[in-house]
Amino acid sequence: MIVYSVSEITSIIKEKITPIGWVWVQGEVSNLRPHSSGHIYFSLKDENSILKGVIFKNDARHLDYKLEEGRIFQVFGRIDIWEKASQYQIIGEKVLPGELGTFYLRFEEIKKKLERKGFFEERFKREIPKFPKKVGIITSAEGAAIRDVLKIIKKRFPPITVIVRPTLVQGDGSSTDVINAIREFEEFGDVDLLIITRGGGSIEDLWAFNEEEVAEEIFNAKIPIISAIGHERDFSISDFVADQRAATPTEAGGLAVPSRDEITVNLNNFKRGLARSIYQKMEFYKSSLGTIEKSYAIRRPLFTFEMKQQYLDHLQDSLIKSGRRRAQILQERLRNLTLKSPDLSTKSNQVSNLENRLESSINLLLKERKQKIKSLESTIQATSYEKTLRRGYSIVRKEKEIIRDSQKLKRGDQLNIRFYQGSSKAIVEETEQ
Questions:
Q1: Hey, which residues does 161 pair with through a beta bridge?
Q2: What are φ and ψ of residue 248, in 5° steps?
């Protein structure tokens, strides 16, 4: 027979209880005792049983609702055992008044269902337009939400067109009215963005925006939608499904339209950057043009081809001399052959053929080179400044500087004007931009 100690049997019981894990438990609160340590001790009871419970200090600070003696509450926590007293208990983290429990559990059920369908995935989110022309607002015609949204929109971008569709936002028929409002904007088709919003409230007040039908309508809409339901701490199913969630109605207005002041600043910065870039490019090309103008190739454009021509003449002379020396060597070898050589005449013919072929190749090469040089000379002559002058243009110089801008001249300056034929001198009397 095995004999257990009290601690051992308690540990065995704890091992059996712990796997129960996290649960929601509903019951009437009794023996409520907030401790000076910050912990809250209580019991949950029904007609047949009592369950001890504790909410530790760190969780007690963040409770949305306070436990009240004698009222029905739902407590979310994990089942564990307090070994000192051999007592099982619930270690709570959240509490909801009993009348809210049904709403909360239904909220979690709908959220998980839509999450499995992929309604919350980023790949289905439509892009919020940066510069909408018309914005539609679905909200109550009364209350702070519509005033907050309109105020921030008109402040950030006054020219924007806003269309408000007054809608029921709580109570019977509110979810149907929200759905109809979305469909009406879809049918209208002349808005770039929708804002669905309302002020804060209890979970019952916000429930229209947790309905599965409303979520499906938002998901299937073709117009991008911003959802701003309640205050910053409030979350609705609509917020999860919408293309973007705003913490407050004011933030929704800020997300919907750009700031005209920011746009103006950005445009001015872009304008200055563009002007600076153009100026730098002009200075670069001006410097490059000055370098080209001073180059020897521009001042004497035919010089390079004259040098090539000289090289070609030298190459022609060298090839001819080399060919002649080669022919002399072959002729000398023929003389050394005996007269009895049976193929002497054949060798002589081969040498003559080689000599003719060599001379033909040299002449052909020289002809091709000369034609190429003539073609390049024609191109240079066609684009030379003399051709430009022949078309009626002229070159104006002040001393040795070529004048391209009248701002560099003043009254009384002496100018030298070069024409295609001849030149003239002139004195500046007046300049115009």
A1: 134
A2: -140, 160
**How does DSSP classify residue 399?**
T
DSSP for residue 233: T
C-alpha of 352 from chain center: 77
224 three-state secondary structure? coil
Query: What DSSP letter does each residue of 383-431 carry, written as one string?
Result: TSHHHHHHTT--EEEETTEEP--GGG--TT-EEEEE-SS-EEEEE----
**Confidence (pTM):** 0.50
Taking CA atoms, 277 is separated from 280, 282, 287, 400, in Å, by: 5, 9, 15, 31
Pick the CATH number of 6-104 from 1.10.287.3510, 2.30.30.180, 2.40.50.140, 2.10.109.10: 2.40.50.140
- Residue 339 has a pLDDT of 47
| Pairing state between β 423-427 and 414-418 | antiparallel
**Helix H or strand E encompassing 323:** helix 303-336
Q: What is the CATH number of domain 129-258?
A: 3.40.50.2300
Residue range 180-236, pLDDT digits in tens: 999 999 999 999 999 999 988 777 788 999 999 999 999 999 999 999 998 877 789
In 139-259, which residue ranges form alpha helices assigned H by DSSP? 144-156, 174-188, 212-220, 237-241, 249-256
CA distances from 299 to 172, 304, 384 (A): 92, 11, 10
User: Which residue type does 367 have?
Assistant: K
CA–CA dist 176, 44 (Å, integer) = 39
Give residue-wise pLDDT tens across range 255-264: 999 988 888 8
Q: Give the span between the Cα atoms of 41 and 60, in whole angstroms.
A: 11
Of 30-34, 224-228, 308-312, minimum mean pLDDT range = 308-312
